[in-house]
Amino acid sequence: MILPSMILASNFSADSIRAWPLWQQGLFVVVVGLVGVFLVLLLFFLTIFIMQKITESMEKHKKDETV
Amino acid sequence: MIEVFKEIFSGFTFFGQGDNWKALIMYVIGAVLIYLAIKKEYEPALLLPIGFGAILVNLPLGVVWGTNAVPGFLKVLYDAGIVTELFPILIFIAIGAMIDFSPLLKNPYMIFFGAAAQFGIFVTFFTTLVLLPYLGIHGIEALKLASAVGIIGAADGPTTLFVASHYKLNDYLGPISVAAYSYMSLVPIIQPPVIRLLTSKKERMIRMEYHESPVSKPIKILFPILVTIIAGIIVPMSVPLVGSLMFGNLIRECGVLERLSQSAQNELANLITLLLGITIGSTMLATKFINPVTGLIMLLGLVAFIFDTAGGVLFAKFLNLFLKTKINPMIGAAGISAFPMSARVVQKMAKKEDPTNFILMQAISANAAGQLGSIVAGGFVIALVDMLVKQIV
What we know:
The complex is a heterodimer of chains A (67) and B (393). Chain A is mainly α and 67 residues long.
């Protein structure tokens, strides 16, 4: 509750975060870091998913051509 | 005459001067590490050189370390490989050449376990940050040290070293590295009790279907390239780690650099491991190593490992609330970076509950995802903490 309220209360610039107490800066790293890791891995997932779909459709297309 | 003898045999009088008696404790610690490496076979390739390095650097006069003006061979290695962050990067090229991402490419949804199992990194980062002021470490120093201690939980030695080197944590490099590598070797001991505590027998017996389908070569080649580009755009600080890991993997998968791939997997990996171990050991100077912060680092490193395992397992249990086809929650524990040790531990536990249950491939997928997750987490920690520590620069 503290972190979201702080984010809403401040103008959320890098300078304002640096002015926070150390433990709140830590909490910021925890929240942003965890969300960030999930987001990046989500992008990796989408990359694999799209590559698979493209490969599947290309193989299907090849099969259709040979038939 | 006595003065001449004193000068020649100064090694004998060394231990009586100031805090030099602490060197004797470091000999014992070095011997214990060598014992664990040889007798228990806990990460012998690293613990043995680390143990021997710890003994070497604490010998009288510190000849192997030398001085800034006349550096000894260990300081030359340290300056060349650790200060420049080169050794962890080279190790990642070797690891990349060793990893087969096919199981992950077949089960891409497993990638999320590689994210969930980084929970311990951030929990430990925060815990360390709160505790360090009690040991007299405040502000920026606390942020930097907490970053490296948190990363221990990723079970990823090179990333831990990379973060510690990035923040020039020279005084703590010894305990951080020893914690990272010794806990990595203790995965079969640390993970099972945590998994058992968080799962029921019924959950541990859940079977998972595995569809054996080949992964096309273009996907295997495109994967390392695209991952590097995505990571490079979103978390530029992770590029040295992701880039070197993926470069190694591209060499492996391209199919035209077999000789280089083999060299990366064998010669490069062996040579860097050898130099890395003894160089880490050389950071374990008694006067820097024996203090309360070392104890805290070792303890919190363990906490990080436990919370990473718990994070992965609890994430799988959370997913099971919504999924029709349930996931064996033990898979989540394999989302750490200890590859393939963690996957083997999970399979062993599954087999113990039901000898016919085979979840190794899913566990390997999560384990490979853990490699990616830990370096991305390392990149995020560096990026965020770099932003915060700018306040005094």
